[in-house]
Structures are given as C-alpha cells and as structure tokens.
Amino acid sequence: MADITRRLGWRHLRGAPTAHIRHHRGGKLLHDGPGLSFWYRALTAALSEVPVDDRELAMTFHARTADFQDVAVQATVTYRISDPATAAARLDFSIDPDTGVWRGAPLEQLGTLLTETAQQHALDVLARTPLAAALADGVTALRERIAAGLAGEPRLPGTGIEVVAVRVVALRPEPEVERALRTPAREQIQQEADRATYERRAVAVERERAIAENELASQIELARREEQLVDQRGTNARREAEEGAAADAVRAEAEAARTVRLAEAEATRSVRLARAEAEGAREIGEARAQAQAAWLRVHADVDVATLHALTGTRLAENLPRIDSVTVTPDLLTGLLSRLGARE
After folding, report:
1. Contact 89, 81 (CB under 8 A)
2. What is the pTM of this model?
C-alpha cells in the first residue's frame, strides 16, 4: 500500500520499490513506474498500484481418482505481475487517492484465476490415475501437469501474469482410507521390527552361548592347571619328604654313631673308673689289713687289763655325748652291791 500524506489540499504519494504506480489526470498518463514519489491533487488524479514482487499463492482443493477415491491436494504457486500496464488495464488495481487502499480486490481475482486453472489440470490428471499410483507418483505428475497447464494458459499472459514456480506440497486421501492404507505398511514395519527383535535376541543368545562356552573353556583350563598344580605340589611334597627322610636317616646314623662313640667312651671310662676304684679299694683293703695286722701285732703282747682300758677308751670315744646322768636309788643300790661283792 502506498504512503500518502496531505499538505494544504495536495497529496504526496511515496511508493515502494516493489509497487508499480500509474498516475492519470484527465486521461493522460503522468507517472508510470515502481518506487515513484510525487505530488498530486486528489480530485483530478486516478491512481493504480500494481505489485511487481514474487507472491506465494497457497491452494487446497479436492479431487477424485480413477477408482473413485477422494483426495486432498495442497499446492503452492509462485507468480508475479510482469506487465503492470496490462494487469492494470485488465484488473482493478486502482487505489483511493486519500488513503492509498485498493478500491477492489485484484489479488483475490488473480488467486481465483490461478487456483481454478491449476485445479482444472490437477483434476484432469487424477481422474485417470488410481489412488495407489497417485499416492506413489502423483506429486511429481501433478506438479509437472499444473506447471505446463499454467504456462499454456492464454489468460495469464493476457493479464500480465507470469508463473515462476509450482510446488505440490501434499496429496492425501480421506482419513479412513489413509488409515486403511497405513495398516499394511504398519504391519510390514511391525514385522520388520519383530524380525529385527528376534534377530537381535538370536544374536544376544548366540553371544551369551559363546560367552558361556568361553567361561566353560576357561573353567576347564583352570581346572586342568589346578590339577597340574596339585600334581606338582604332590611331587614337591614327596621330594621334600624323601629328602627329609634321607636327611633324618643321615642325622639318625650320625646320632647313632655319636651315641655309640659316647657309649664306648663312657664304657671305657667306666671300665677305667671301675678298675681305678677296684685298685683303690684293693689298696685301701690292703692298707687296712696291714694296719689291722699291725694293730693286732701291737696288742698281742699287751696284758688283759691294758686291753680293757683301751677298749673302754675306744668305747668312750664312740659313745654319744652325755649332758646329765640320773642315778636312781635302784641303780645306786645295784652298783654298790656289785662293788661289795668284788671286794
């Protein structure tokens, strides 16, 4: 929309670079071009504003396929007005000189023209195409047919319109038909998922089996090595026992030999000691005998009274010590009797 300002009964229009402005006064064209800026009087000016930028037109329409199935088509047409003078002459692009607003709805007219033309060619294609083929390859076929139909439509160049691009966004059947069509695909996807699950489980089971086999092989190898270790330990123990027995035998033999030697030495010493003791005893006996013989020879010539005195002396020497003597009357009487008898 053009930017219009008021100054003392005059109007100033300033257009955008993407808007083609046409200014007529008294049937004469005074200004013609995009992005213009000029002064004018509202009572004598006839203004038209034609957009020359690329515009997107989204359209949605229903069609029926060859097997009588309803489908919804979503498409977008990109167009621009390549001949603003022709478009302004064929469609009402006039604007209010005071507000700059279009008096009519030219873009809606263009949209209706493009939509009906595109829908006509799309219906022609879908009417000869089954639903399955339309859903599989219909988007490309529709896009090509709509683009060709719009390029060959004589009304568009006659209106100054140029089609830049055509895009078919979607081609969808009714919800019930779409769900029915999705079911086999979903079943197939579910089957593929189940098969992948089963394969994954099979791979997991195979891996678990391989792990179990590896663990069993490891246990068998460990048991075999433990058996070898036990055998080696038994061999080492037997060897140690044999060596210990041999060492004990050697020690026993050495101890026996030492004991024999000690016994022999002890026996020899005992024999020598016994001999020495016997010799000493014999010598002592001989000395005692000689002393007794000498004692006897000495006392052989002594009288009996002397012998009695000597005997009393020896007896007194061998008697124990007497600290006190108790003389009873009976003992004293007996001794006096004996003394009297001797006298």
Report:
1. no
2. 0.53
